[in-house]
Structures are given as C-alpha cells and as structure tokens.
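Data deposition worksheet. Section B asks for the primary sequence of the deposited chain exactly as it was used as input, without tags or linkers unless they were present during the calculation. Section C holds the resulting structure in token form. Section D is free text for depositor observations; keep each observation to a single sentence. Incomplete worksheets are returned to the depositor.
Section A, Depositor: J.P.
Section B:
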Amino acid sequence: MTWSPVASLPPINLRCIGPLNSRQEAEYDDLVQLMARHFDSPVAFLSFSEDRRRWLKSFVGSNSSEIPYDEAFHRAVDANRGSLWIGDLRTHEQLREHGLVANDPNLRFFAAVAVEDHDGRNIGLLGIADQQPREFDTRAADAELADLASFGRQVTTLHQLRRAVQNSDNRNDRLAKHQIAMEAALDGVAILNRDEEFVYVNPAFAHMHGYEPRLLIGRMWRILCDPDQSWTLDNTVLPALDRDGRWHGEAHGLRGDGQRFDTELSLTRLQDGGLVCICRDITQRKETEAQLRTSRERLQLAVQGSTDGLWDCQNPPHGTCWWSTRFYELLGYAELEIPASFATFASLLHLDEVDTVTGEIESRIADRSAFDIEHRLRRRDGDYAWFRNRGRAVVDEATGMLRMSGTISDISDRKLAEEQLRSAKEAAESANQAKS
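Section C:
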C-alpha cells in the first residue's frame, strides 16, 4: 500500500507546552511506551520543535538517531494538513531518499500527527515508525490514525493537568511571598469579608490599634473607628468606595485603650464584596506639620514686626533668592518690583564698594562662615543709604545645597551722626590749634 489515501485529522493542540530541552518526565515516557505497545511499533516518539531546533521529549527505540523527527518529516506532516500515515516510506516521493529510509535503520512505515501551540504553529510531532511496511486499506489506516490522535489527546490532557498543578503551585508560592511581604510591612494591612469582619490583619495593623492580630479576626471594623466620624464614614467614604471601588484619605483611628490617632487610609473594594484596607499612622507627621505651622506663624510675626530686612539665597551667588517685604521697603520699592537676586544686589551697591562687598561675601560663601559688613545701596529715588548687612553661609540639611541667609538694617542715621561727630571734632581741633 502507498502512503496517501487516509483522511487527515485536526492537529493536536498543546497550549503552552513545556519549554524545549525540558527534563524527561516519566508520565510522558509511560504514554509513549504504551503507544508503542498498542501499535506494536518498535519506534514511538513525542518531539517538539522551535526555531528549527528539534528535541525529543520521549521516545521508544534503540537510540535517538533512529527517530524520524527532523525537518523532512515535519514538512511531510504539514503538507498533509497535520496528520500522515505512510504504509511504505519507499513509495513516498519526498521521503524515500531520506537517510533513515535509504540507509540504516531502513525505516519503512511512518505515521504521525502534528502538535500545535495555541497560535496554530506546528511545534512538534507525535508518531510511530517501523522497519517493516504496513499494508492497510484506507478504512483501517484511518482507524489507526484516529487511535494515534487519541494518544495525542492523552498527551494534551496530561500536559494540561501538569500545567494546572504547576500554576497552582506558582499561585500558592506567590501568595506565600505576598503574605511574607504583608507580615513584614510597616504599613497596616487588613482584609475584611462582605460582612465587614476582619479575616486577616498583619502585625503592623494590629499593633497600630493596640491589639494582637488574633484578637481582631472575626470582629467588626467599626470598633477601630472614631465614633465622631461615623456620619462621615457612612455618608461620604462608603458611598465613594461603592461608586469608585476605592477611596484614599485621612481619618481618626481608635486604639484599644480608647486613644484617638491620625491615620491615612487606602480602601479597595473586592469583587466578593470584601475590602482591603491599608493604614498608616500619621500622628508624628501631623505633629510635625503643626509645629511647622506654628514656627512659620511666629516667623511671619517676627518678620512683620522687625525693622530689618530679611534675605535668603539658595546656591549663592547664582541661585534663587528671596527678599522680605521690609527689605524692599528699605530700598523704596514695592515687593517684587525688582528681582530678588545677587546680581540685583550687586547692581545697587555704590561703585566705590562693589569689589570690596562682593569679594567679602564670595569669600564667606567659599569658607562657609559669617560676615558683618557696612555698605551703601542705591534706593529707588536714586539716593544712597547706608546699611549693615549680616549673613552666614551654611549647607541646607534638607537639600544638601549651599544656602546663605541674613538681614540688612538701615544705619543711615547712625552714619550721619558719626559724620557730624567727626566734623565737630575736626572743627574743635582746628579751633584749638588756632588759639595756640
């Protein structure tokens, strides 16, 4: 009998079949051996292919070099729409000159079905072979090929079961890792069921509220909420959570001893009606913010009540600067009427003092030290006034950048008095000299 007149069968679909060069597995080996016995075939195999590489997953035969799974056999199966039964290979136009047919081991019979991935690509063969030809009529050959396809479906089932177990193991492994991460998290993590009962709390969540984790399991979440915020929770937070599936904001928590504390909450609704809550104790942050507000208010009062002008520069002499309202007033300008910068300051210096003053300030920037100098600045009306300028260069701990801050005081009256005193002394000395 010749090779063609059997009906082609649909390819066996092994979705996401294991990687090439994966280890031998007894289950696949047993199936291929059973297939060899069923067909009374000395050669049986399951092979995979990828990027023109062929690899035997399992085979029965004296050695792998006798297994017909190379490119030529793949092409022949593809040409017959994914399944092929050849009673005598010497009658097959493309395969009769193949080395496994024309030479040792002199294969004569070959049957195989294609293995495809989920994208319909041919990734392997499941087949049998013999050194003796097999003569069947078309109906018998179709039946044998159908049996071969049945073995292929067993391979598919086996693979799917093993893949399901592997995926389950992977999921369990991921869940275990997630639980380890949650157990070690600094933020509190809690999971509630649809009845608003705790089914999981990590140590951080429990200790934040003054409990041991086991004492919260099965209890209602409202025992940890400030009663004064019940209306807000029921009328704002929960409706937003049901509408959007999540909510983020601040609330007051309640410890086991009745103490209230500030929290930042992230709530996420689960598909089963449950809830995931991530909670952070922000008490210290709130206290720091309150202290900062108080400090700013005190500074603002000090600035408003001071007769001195305040200034601050980041990364001097070329960085950004700030001048207080009083600084501008001392120069006769409205706030922000001229840019606050080292360059503006230098342009207002008296020409006789530009090099001396800028050189002194740049030296103090270089050695991170303080300066206290007197100089003249040109006011908005064009007249010059005398100022005492004091400052210090430091490294900002928050940003690591160089920063210089200080004050200026109008000392024009003092300078005028000193000049008048000096003139009076000179006049007195001249008078004394004239008498003598």
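Section D:
Residues 184-286 form a domain with the Beta-Lactamase fold (CATH 3.30.450.20).
The chain has three domains: 12-165, 184-286, 307-419.
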